[in-house]
Amino acid sequence: MPEAPLDMPRTWAEFADPAEDGQRFRVDLTFLTSSWTCIFGAGCQGIYADRPDDGCCTLGAHFTDDDDVERVRAVVAELGEDEWQHHPGYGKRGDKSPARSSAWLGSEDGARTTKVVDGACVFLNRPGFPAGAGCALHQHAVAEGTPPHAAKPDVCWQLPLRRSYRTVELPDDTSYLEVTIAEYDRRGWGPGGHDLDWYCSGNPEAHVGAEPVYRGSRAELVELMGRAAYDELVVRCEAHLSAVRQAGSTGGRKLLPLLVHPATAAAGTVGGRREKVKRRRGTSALPDGANEPAAPPRARRRA
Q1: pLDDT for 138-170, tens place per residue?
Q2: CB-neighbour burial class of residue 21 (10 A; exposed 0-12, middle 13-18, buried 19+)
Q3: How far is C-alpha 278 from the chain's CA centre?
Q4: Cβ distance 148 to 142 under 8 Å?
Q5: From CA 67, how far away is CA 69, in angstroms rounded?
Q6: Which residues contact 35 (CB under 8 A, 6 or more apart)?
Q7: What is the distance between the alpha carbons of residues 55 and 47, in angstroms, rounded to a whole number?
Q8: Span 269-275, mean pLDDT?
Q9: Cβ atoms 10, 165 nearer than 8 A
Q10: DSSP element (H, E) containing 113
Q11: Residue 72: which of 22, 112, 21 has the closest Cα?
Q12: Strands lying side by side in the sheet with 161-169
């Protein structure tokens, strides 16, 4: 099935942030009510055809700030050699911490990243590793019963959600901060995004979630928006899905392309599907209802 067009119509909603004066949210109802889910190990083709087992972990993840680095460093210090395929060991005397920067931090154009080892992120366990293929940070969080987004680089747990900001100037010389929550499609990666051989958010193969994104990615959305704003988002998403059902039952099918993500429509999973996605043996399962991506980096440069 073809990938959804980048210029497809979308339905947006706006509302004031209940927790922050002078701030408004603008939310992409088309994607947030879609049935996208991470299908790592369950049909994911990888962003590059020659690395299908990597998912979106082929490149090192770029860190956003010091807090992002230190959060990951704390988790790295807890990883055992049975959890992390590329664990650096503890040194000859056993006194070295695996969280030492040289073991997992890299750089690109002056920006801090996770290292790339053998063609993929240092935290990606490859197929055949006893603990299972997938992100070691993610697997550790699941094993410890903690949210994966609290253990991974910001870019890894946010994709394919995208939070962006702009200041809106009004005619009466007032302004407000607009926070947009939307789909991180190919364009979000910059020009290199068009070089990706496959990308999940626009592909029907990945629109097989048990729940719509706003439910399946609840933990991530609460982290991005705050609980009060998330509750407002839920009201609008459920109203939108109600409108979708009504349009489908009253003969208003011409309206559906304006209301439903094309990849969800192609997959026939409006509102989510009940069946669980079957994962390849050896890959780590996600918690029920989770729409957590594996570990998305920026697009690589091609000559």
Answers
A1: 999 999 999 999 999 999 999 999 999 999 999
A2: exposed
A3: 19
A4: yes
A5: 5
A6: 207, 208, 209, 211, 212, 213, 261, 264, 267, 269, 270, 271, 272, 273
A7: 6
A8: 75
A9: no
A10: strand 111-114
A11: 112
A12: 12-16, 23-28, 175-183, 161-169
Determine the pLDDT at residue 298: 43
Residue 108 identity (one-letter amino acid): E
Q: What is the Cα–Cα distance from 144 to 146, expressed in whole angstroms?
A: 6
CB 53 within 8 A of CB 119: no
* H or E segment to which residue 182 belongs: strand 175-183
Q: Residue 92: which residues within 8 A CB-CB, separation 6 or more?
A: none
Q: What is the domain partition of the chain in residue ranges?
A: 1-54+174-303, 57-158
Beta carbons of 161 and 178 less than 8 angstroms apart: no
Instruction: Please compute, for residue 14, the number of CA atoms within 13 A of its CA located in the half-sphere on the CB side.
Output: 7
Residue 172: helix, strand or coil by DSSP? coil
- Write down the pTM of the prediction: 0.86
Which region holds residue 195: left if phi is over 0, alpha if psi is between -120 and 50, else beta? Answer: alpha
